[in-house]
Amino acid sequence: MRNVFLLLCMITLFSSCLSGVSGKKANNQTPSTKDDFKVIGYWPGSNKKIDTGSIKQLDQIIYSFLHLKGTKLQVSPEDAVHLEYLVGLKKINPELEVLISLGGWGGCETCSDVFSTESGRMDFAKSVKNIMEKYDAQGIDLDWEYPAIRGYEGHAFKPEDRENFTLLIQDLRNVLGPEAVISFAAGSFKDYLEKSVDWAEVMPLVDHVNLMTYDMFNGGSSTTGHHTSLYPNEYQKNSAHFTINYLDSLGVPKEKMVLGAAFYARVWEEVNDSMNGLYQVGKFKESILYKDIEAYKKNHSGFEYFYDSVAQAPYLYNASEKLFATYDDSSSITSKTKYALDHNLGGIMFWQLSGDNTDGLLDIIDEVIIEHNK
Q: Is residue 199 part of a domain?
């Protein structure tokens, strides 16, 4: 009996160690309840206050973005105002986690160089800890676009970034401790998935990965397509489903994957009317927030709505002006949220909160979760 007791103690100790590796809980376990399902919104800062309903619907809000100054993460006076505002929202939602974020598109010019040295990584990690303590933030989301592969024009990258990203995560976890939330935003395209991250080494150390399952067709694309497709179709392999299946094949726990949604549209011009503008040559024109789509349609009379039932993705085409738009709407957001819940993913996130409107996409997410939990 004594031997059995000792064995049970060893098992309990081992389980506790596993839990400490990746944050507040053993995230390699399948969520037992939908209370573990997180709704995460990126927020780039605004003078407009976030409505109370949205605050209550969020589990995490990520302030986007802070940037490097030398080897340290820098908080500008404007950033400080926004962070203090976000932390104050906990009076409305005490369970809300506030995260800071590094980088963003065009915001990580020196990341490759800074994170290539141990001193650079440690300076950064310590500065993150200081910011978290000063502003009562719960963690950090890394949005380095991209380690080891070409990202923003002119930004340095090298093959060694992949290993250095792992070392950066290790240093952050060691400095911030097991209770801090550490996540990162990941590209959903083949080059990133294969070359930027050592998934086996990184995932045990982070709470989750925010999958940017959008911008599959973007400002650099000379043809149109679904920029935030849930499923592949005969013309487009890249999709949220493809990304999740690929990571699953590598052993990444599904409960650490957070599905991405887009609260904005991408618009192309000079698009021919074949297939109602879908998968046609075009010239990228602009991005517009979801809340501005209706006004945009009124200003460009002639848009027709279409829905790809295979890809679960909406799009608009204006034949007279040869304009094509791809985005998420209430139907695709419903499908994405159901998908994330049914596949036991860790949650759903979106770029970005200021793009939503009253009775908008975040409300749809909340309604689907409530219905699922009945």
A: yes
